[in-house]
Amino acid sequence: MQKKVFFRGRLLPLVLLAPQLAVTVVFFFWPAGQAILQSTMREDAFGFSREFVGLENFREVLEDPAWVNAALNSFVFSALVAGLALGLALFLAVQADKSLRGATVYRSLLIWPYAVAPAVAAVLWLFLFQPQVGLIGRGLNAIGIAWDYRLNGGQAMTLIVIAAAWKQLAYNFIFFLAGLQSIPASVLEAAAIDGARPTRRFWTVIFPLLSPTTFFLLVVNLTYAFFETFGIIHALTGGGPAKATETLIYKVYVDGVENLNLGQSSAQSVILMIIVIALTAIQFRAVEKKVHY
Amino acid sequence: MATLSLHGVRKSFNNTAVLHGIDLEVADGELVVIVGASGCGKSTLLRIVAGLETPSDGQVVINGRDVTGLEPADRDIAMVFQNYALYPHMSVFGNMAYGLKIRGLPRAEIDRRVRDAAGILGIEPLLDRKPKQLSGGQRQRVAMGRAIVREPALFLFDEPLSNLDAKLRVQMRAEIRRLQRRLGVTSLFVTHDQVEAMTLGDRLVVMNAGRPAQVAPPMEIFARPADTYVAGFIGSPSMNFIPAALDQGNASARLADGTLVPFPEGHRPGSAGQPITLGVRPEHLLPGEGEGEGAIPLAVELIEPLGSETVVHGRAPGGLAITARLPGTFSGSVLPVRLPGAHLHVFDAETGRRLDP
Amino acid sequence: MDGSLATPAPVRDDALLRATRRRRLASRLLAHAALLLGVAIVAFPIWMTLVGSTHDAGTIGRGDVPLLPGSHAAENYATAWNEGGGRTRTTPASVMLWNSLLMAVLIAVGKITISILSAYAVVFFRFPGRMIAFWAIFITLMLPVEVRIIPTFQVIVDLNLGNSWTGLVVPLIASATATLLFRQFFLTIPDEFVEAAKMDGAGPLRFLRDVVLPLSLTNIAALFVILFIYGWNQYLWPLLIINDRSMETIVVGLSKMIGRGDSQNDWNTIMATAVLALLPPVLVVALMQRWFVRGLTETEK
């Protein structure tokens, strides 16, 4: 889509673009280029000399059991968060969609966790699950479940999944409800007259019509779980215990900021960029599909 | 006091010529309507006059001043858009005053001009409203008002009535005509509607494929169309075209079945036996009785009763589609019609140009 | 008129009717029950945080957190507001709130401003390099700050912008999403408005100010809500950039107060700080819900 009518002038549009372009070049392209460059270099321990090592850093990263562990954690974590947050949100949105008046009320009551920062969400859940202080943490211990997420990796993973999914629930709910409410009433009426009962109607008519929204949300949720949950992990578990909750993004941070291994950290960044680019590309395909739907 | 002259105006988009050299003189106070089918270049021509498009070649002269390279704002013109282009966030007053504010007119002067224009258009009570609170006709008036307050040398209308319903269109048409007379502003009006063109214009420019097919007053265009395109475009239902050839020393037309139709107005130029096209308006066909000499028996396919008259669509024996417009009512399966002598239009079959005695 | 000619009374299947009514009622009850449960799940952590912020440290430390608010609200919030909490004396919440507010507003306003300007240039002008500029902005969509965090941090160090508002805000204000949203909206502004403006003698900047900006107000409001929350909730970037305690933002500050989550923490003050940290963005969402939902569903299209 393009306009057919324009203003004249060559300098003015460049002036208008300048701030955005300057920020983009200085804080996007330069660092991205640096990352790619550094990912092929190795510095000695004191930063005095650098040598070109080709894809050596990538090979080391991919063969590093710690990285593989982080990749596996990311995968499990993202799948659980996306599954939980999407499933619950879809169920609630379908229930809310049943009554038109109630829908907006419930929406108001359900959407505000979106506004809560991931790190703050972590604090809220920590206060519930802290083994000595938290209501649920103590409760679990009281009924004989040895609950301490600071010692048990599985429990730590459970906790960050709950906190991350809790925060994302609101977002998914908004989109599912909007998607449901945009399904033309006539389609549902036609299905009802065809004799499809509510459950059947959901799986044969509503869910397929909702699939573009679902797919879009799936990608968004995966991106969220991969990249935006750093705050939750940092505040709750610090990647522990014993790296049980260390995800890829967390490992970039640890290697780059705490271990100061720039070459490897950069190689990891580049791998992450490739993952984001793939996710974004998939998302655009989905959006295109949505448009043609 | 303003005149408009176009000299050899051409326009091409990506090597496709849209306008092939337009020359036009518009006299002071005249309303010229540019009419044609969509894609004929009429809007492009108007936009070139407005300065919204740059011509590939040629000159636009307003009041003796060559404005070809100038910005629209510097041309002393005003334009009424098809969709009115009223700024939705400004009140009616704001919309009308905006151009004047930019020109830096004193506040009192702006106020006076807007109120004057609103008075002329009868929209004073609406001045504080937003465009979306107005009806179609009221929006149309505001769009006119926005043009009027500028007191321009030239009014440009780009199909301003096409978004109105049929009844309102007729009413606004009359209003625009009255207003233009009253203000005496030279105007250029673009439309695809031939009725609008006929009723509004002092003169019409009938455009065909980027060329003016004919430039003349409305009745002249109706009575003496310059070619088959104009003849078919103006008038409803459209003129019937019947293939024929010159005969009897170019004093008659010979139809396909051998019937001779004499030209009472005299000989037409051309070589003996040259193929021609006869044009007859549906209302000029003479309904005949029986199978007399020269009568064409039409096999009736469709009858459209319009109340005071009836339009009959039929086919001549050779398969040619013919439309007749008869006074009163009609029923039956065959309608014999005769070609009139007086209202025959004769065109060169090859070029489509009109052949006059 | 004659009763004897009336049609026979319609047959009614009372059993089926009752079953249908029962099913509908059950379905609605289930819906409300499920939603109320959902609301409870969503609200419970916040409720407990509110409760936690109204008891004294001892009650919480013993693990006796009641389900209802206590009587220490005033002193807890006063401590959080004035002194900060925890055994590791942190920055007072008042200072951190102000820092967060400043960061969020600067990011939101900055993003909106440069996005409007660049979208305006790309949509309303034809100039050499237009598509290159567009793609350069567009491609940044693929590089969230978390991904390029270390190299971007190095750039900030090279430019000597660490511990500064410029370093904190500017790298976050480039926004492909906002630019795309405004571009999308600007494309819906009819060509005739531009033409009318040309007739009126309004230049491009005047048109931007008098027509485009007023028409964009709802979009700007919607985007502001989203971006304010985005800015307020920033975590990793401020964590890296800011060492100066006086510039600490509340989200980062709060997580620092927790440390490793020991039971001896001043949980009462921490919970009061948590409430303060989540209140502003939640209020923005609650009060501007209409804009928020719209902004959200439109930015992600």
What are the defining features of this structure?
heterotrimer, B: 357 residues, alpha+beta, Rossmann fold, OB fold (Dihydrolipoamide Acetyltransferase, E2P), 2 domains, six-stranded mixed beta sheet, five-stranded antiparallel beta sheet, 8 helices, 20 strands, 24% helix, 33% strand, elongated, C: 301 residues, mainly alpha, MetI-like fold, 69% helix, membrane (chain A)
**What would CATH call the class of the largest domain in chain B?**
Alpha Beta
Find the structural class of chain B using helix and strand composition: alpha+beta
- Beta-strand segment tally of chain B: 20
Helix content percent band of chain B: 10-25%
Assess the beta-strand content of chain B as a share of residues. 25-35%
Oligomer: heterotrimer
Largest interface: A-C, 103 and 104 residues
Enumerate the spans of chain B where pLDDT stays under 50 for 5 or more consecutive residues. Answer: none
Strand content of chain A: under 5%
The largest β sheet of chain B comes out as: 6 strands, mixed
Taken from the alpha-carbon principal axes, the silhouette of chain B is elongated
Head-to-tail CA distance between termini of chain B: 40 Å
Side-by-side strand order of the widest sheet of chain B: 6-7-8-3-9-10
The H-level CATH homologous superfamily of the largest domain in chain B, spelled out, is P-loop containing nucleotide triphosphate hydrolases
CATH superfamily membership of chain A, which one?
Answer: MetI-like
Q: What is the CATH topology of the largest domain in chain B?
A: Rossmann fold
How far apart are the termini of chain A?
18 Å
Give the CATH architecture of the largest domain in chain B.
3-Layer(aba) Sandwich
Give the biggest beta sheet of chain A. Answer: 2 strands, antiparallel
